[in-house]
Amino acid sequence: GEVQAIGGVNEKIEGYFDVCSAKGLTGEQGVLIPATNVQHLVLREDVVEAISEGKFAIYPVRTIDEGIEILTGVKAGERDSGGNFPEGTVNRRVEDRLIAFANRAKMFARSRGDDRNNDKLTS
Which domain holds residue 106? Predict the structure, then answer.
C-alpha cells in the first residue's frame, strides 16, 4: 500500500530525536516518514546537524514495502505472473506463515468434527 502524509511531521521527528539524543545517538537511530512529507520538513538545526554527521537518519518511503525493506534489510517481494512471491522475501514468508496458520485451523476444525469448510490451503 501507499504511505499517506501525516500531520506534525517536524514535531514528531524532533520529539523522537530528543529521546534518542538523551539516550545517546549511535548513528543507528532514525525515522521512516511518508515521502510526501519531505517537502514540508523544517527541522531544528541540531537535528539537521546530526543527520549530516550520520548520527540520525530520515528515511522517506512511498510504500509499505519500502519501509519493510528498510526495517528488515530483506526484500519485500512482488508477486510474479503466477501470483507467487519470490523465495526468501518478507511477503513470501508472511504468506507461508498465514497458509500454515490456516492449515492448522482446518486441522483443528476437522479434529472437532467440523467439516463445513474442507477445501485445501496448502501450497
Answer: 77-123
